[in-house]
Prior knowledge:
- The chain is an alpha+beta fold and 117 residues long.
- It has one domain: 3-Layer(aba) Sandwich (Glutaredoxin), CATH 3.40.30.
- It contains 6 helices and 4 strands, in the order E-H-E-H-H-H-H-E-E-H.
- The protein is globular and about 40 Å long.
- The two termini are 15 Å apart.
- 26% of the residues are buried.
Amino acid sequence: xxxxxxxxxxxxxxxxxxxxxxxxxxxxxxxxxxxxxxxxxxxxxxxxxxxxxxxxxxxxxxxxxxxxxxxxxxxxxxxxxxxxxxxxxxxxxxxxxxxxxxxxxxxxxxxxxxxxx
Length: 117
């Protein structure tokens, strides 16, 4: 299982503590330094079944500065994936890629269902 996170993000740090408290093994990847590629994002989006918007960090500064709330409506899925791949700070975090599942953000109940079941 891979966990993409940003160490200066309080939600990511909560998620890390939760994983450690439940003795869950994972491979960590720094979201900002090693942002997901277009190919990875495309594959995870397909695997997740989520709307693409769930992959965007809608509360992030970059999202707001770029006025993406308005711009995404007029962009194709392919354009959105390419945009996400340009900067890890646009991607919702933490992002968990497991065997056949994807989790975006840290919602404890959701994580318990996927990771402790």
